[in-house]
Specification:
There is one protein chain. This protein is an alpha+beta fold and 230 residues long. Among the domains are: 60 residues, no CATH class; 94 residues, Winged helix-like DNA-binding domain superfamily/Winged helix DNA-binding domain (Arc Repressor Mutant, subunit A, Orthogonal Bundle). Helices cover 51% and strands 14% of the residues. It is built from 6 helices and 7 strands. The strands form 3 sheets. Strands 1-2-3 form a 3-stranded antiparallel beta sheet. The protein has a two-stranded antiparallel ribbon with strand order 4-5.
Length: 230
C-alpha cells in the first residue's frame, strides 16, 4: 500500500534474515540485508566468516533487483511491440502502417533482413523485393517496386533499416537484426510448433498438449467440486 506523503519501503523476511529496501533521503533506492543468525546459512559467527556472509547478502540483493528489473521490462516490451506492429505518424503527419505480427508479408520482410548477403554492403529495393517475394512463395515480378517502397518505409520508420547516405541502398541496423531475429524465431519455433502440437490428431500427444489436457481436467474437477459443495 502506497500512502501519499509517505515513503514506501519493502521488507522481506527469511527466518532471522531481513532484506529492507527503501529510498535513501528520497533520492536513491537502497537495498540492505541483515543476517541476525549466521547458523541459518551454516556459517559461524567468527570475523573470518564475514566475506562468506557478505557474498550471501550481495547475492540476495542482486536477485531481488534482477526480479524487479525483469518485472518492469514487459512494460517497455509492450511499448516496443506496439511501435513495430501498430501504425505510427511521422513528424510530417504521414501515417505509416505497422508490421503486423504473424502476417505473412511482414514475416517475410523480417526474415529477409536476416539473410547474410544483405549485411556487408547493404541492399536495394530490388534485392529485398526478390527475397521477400520468394519467402512468400511469389514470383518477384509480381511484386511492384512501389509495393516494396511501401515496405521499406515501414521498416525505415521503425529504425529497422537505415538508408546509406548518397546511395539508393539500405543497411539493416543492429536494432533491426535483433528485432527480426527475435520475432521470426518466436513465430517459427514457438507459435507454429506449439499450435501444430495442439492441433495434432496424433495418438501420442506432446508435452504441451498433455499439459493443456491436464489443465482442462483440473478446471473440470474444480467446477464439479464447486457445484457439489453448492
Amino acid at each position: 500500500m502506497i500512502t501519499e506523503g509517505v515513503t514506501p519501503s519493502l521488507h522481506i523476511d527469511y527466518k532471522n534474515t531481513t532484506i529492507k529496501q527503501y529510498h535513501k533521503e528520497g533520492r536513491s533506492l537502497r537495498t540492505e540485508t541483515t543476517i541476525n543468525n549466521t547458523y541459518v546459512f551454516r556459517i559461524g559467527k567468527r570475523l573470518t566468516n564475514l566475506p562468506a556472509l557478505r557474498e550471501i547478502g550481495y547475492t540476495a540483493n542482486r536477485r531481488l533487483l534482477r526480479v524487479q528489473r525483469l518485472s518492469h521490462d514487459p512494460i517497455t516490451g509492450a511499448d516496443a511491440l506496439a511501435a513495430i506492429t501498430s501504425p505510427v505518424t511521422t513528424a510530417a503527419g504521414t501515417r505509416v502502417p505497422g508490421l503486423r505480427f504473424a502476417d505473412q508479408r511482414s514475416h517475410a520482410l523480417l526474415s529477409a533482413l536476416l539473410v547474410f548477403r544483405l549485411q556487408p554492403y547493404g541492399f536495394t529495393n530490388g534485392d529485398l523485393r526478390t527475397l521477400a517475394a520468394e519467402l512468400r512463395g511469389l514470383d518477384p515480378g509480381g511484386v511492384s517496386a512501389g509495393q516494396m517502397t511501401y515496405d521499406l518505409r515501414r521498416l525505415k520508420t521503425r529504425n529497422l533499416i537505415t538508408r546509406i547516405e548518397g546511395t539508393h541502398r539500405y543497411r539493416v541496423t543492429d536494432h533491426g537484426l535483433d528485432t527480426a531475429k527475435f520475432l521470426t524465431c518466436v513465430q517459427d519455433r514457438i507459435l507454429r510448433t506449439g499450435l501444430a502440437e495442439l492441433n495434432s490428431p496424433a495418438p501420442a500427444p506432446g508435452r504441451l498438449s498433455s499439459a493443456a489436457t491436464a489443465y482442462r481436467a483440473a478446471v473440470d474437477t474444480l467446477t464439479t467440486a464447486a457445484l457439489f459443495v453448492a
